[in-house]
Write a structure and sequence with these properties.
The protein has 371 residues and is an alpha+beta fold. The chain folds into 3 domains: 4-112, no CATH class; 143-209, 2-Layer Sandwich (Dna Ligase, domain 1); 213-329, D-amino Acid Aminotransferase, Chain A, domain 1, CATH 3.30.470. It is built from 12 helices and 15 strands. A 5-stranded antiparallel β-sheet has the order 13-12-11-14-15. Strands 5-10-6-9 form a 4-stranded antiparallel β-sheet, with helices on one face. Helix 1 (15-26) crosses helix 10 (313-323) and helix 5 packs across helix 8. The two termini are 36 Å apart.
Length: 371
């Protein structure tokens, strides 16, 4: 029996999980994507050890039936339809702690491929850990201040003149009354942003000296393969934060080779962080030097294949999960593409379910946050 890839994402609106399921089925596999690990359609899990054996797992981490694991957007169960309302808070806490324990010993359960291993994924989400590792691996870094000290922030801005502010995690919220939506992305610091002590001290932030850049590079590492996209304005100009322009007509995206020396440093950084996959943000300055900004170990990448169809990103993640190894092969004849997925009945069915969930959440006054 061929082992099933397991996709751990508790978000019903996870486009990447849906697309990977479609692609893996096209490859003849039957992936398991439980939106809740407490669901009735998920095999219960047990872990066992004694004085003669290390930890062994059955159920949805069974060695014989489950292959590679995509630790995509793992979530603890929130809903328990058969439980008494008074017990739900207790069940949520127990599940959260139980899964934290399972993931903590995941290295001992088998030698299967995790994308990425939970401990490494959790550590790599920390911006300071990333920057420390990047420095060890020889990357150029912009001068950086992480602080909620108004005086320190003002001194940093005065010293470097052009400074970028960015949050630890992008956030979207609705303005009361007008209904306007706002998002926090990287932006140049303006003098008025530094006037209020309360504003600066209440919210810690990341401040970096602005790199006078030619363009941005988004590098998607999927196992041993690196897929690189050059991002800049359609007029050839650099953008402060290209993410603001992702679906705008003023963003130009094109596949390009990695600059010399970058692949070796990326491979070193992935080993340092313990990652099998990740999306890296780099910038190239006017002198042609490459600077590291950050890595998102579970970053979105299918939008890049939508913009540059020659990039086989969906095929690559499916091949790595199917083969359970980072040195997977890519079959040029395989029609596992983002375009084909978007045109499939699988996508249409998934989207109808997501739309119904979004409408229900809107009626209930809640919002789903897409990272």
């Amino acid at each position: 029996m061929q082992r099933r890839p397991l996709i751990l994402s508790g978000l019903v609106h996870d486009l990447h999980a849906s697309a990977a399921c479609w692609g893996l089925r096209r490859s003849g596999l039957s992936p398991l994507w439980p939106t809740s690990l407490a669901g009735e359609d998920v095999p219960p899990i047990s872990l066992h050890c004694d004085e003669d054996t290390a930890w062994q797992a059955s159920g949805w981490l069974d060695e014989a039936s489950i292959g590679a694991v995509w630790y995509r957007r793992a979530r603890s169960p929130e809903e328990f339809p058969r439980a008494l309302p008074a017990d739900v808070a207790f069940l949520r806490t127990e599940w959260a702690r139980f899964l934290r324990n399972v993931y903590a010993v995941s290295d001992e359960l088998s030698d299967r491929l995790w994308v990425n291993r939970p401990a490494a994924a959790s550590s790599a989400e920390n911006k300071l850990v990333q920057l420390r590792a990047a420095r060890r691996c020889g990357w150029r870094l912009p001068a950086t201040l992480v602080s909620n000290d108004p005086d320190a922030i003002r001194r940093f801005a005065a010293r470097h003149q052009r400074v970028i502010y960015k949050p630890f995690m992008p956030h979207t919220w609705e303005e009361a009354g007008s209904g306007r939506m706002h998002s926090s992305f990287a932006r140049l610091v303006e003098p008025g942003m530094l006037e209020s002590d309360d504003s600066l001290s209440m919210c810690p932030g990341i401040y970096q000296a602005y790199v006078d850049k030619q363009f941005d590079l988004r590098v998607v590492a999927i196992g041993d393969r690196f897929f690189t996209v050059r991002l800049r304005g359609t007029g050839g100009e650099a953008l402060v934060d290209w993410r603001v322009h992702t679906y705008a007509p003023d963003l130009a995206a094109e596949a390009c080779p990695l600059p010399a020396g970058c692949q070796a440093r990326l491979e070193s950084l992935m080993r340092e962080l313990g990652l099998a996959a990740g999306s890296f943000d780099l910038v190239v300055d006017r002198a042609g030097d490459v600077h590291f900004l950050e890595v998102n170990q579970s970053g979105q990448f299918l939008f890049l294949e939508e913009m540059v169809e020659s990039l086989p990103l969906l095929q690559a993640i499916c091949a790595m999960l199917a083969e359970g190894r980072t040195d997977y092969s890519l079959d040029a004849s395989t029609e596992i593409t983002y375009r084909a997925y978007m045109a499939s009945d699988h996508h249409q069915s998934w989207w109808e379910g997501v739309r119904g969930q979004l409408e229900a959440d809107t009626r209930a006054g809640s919002w789903l946050s897409v990272e």
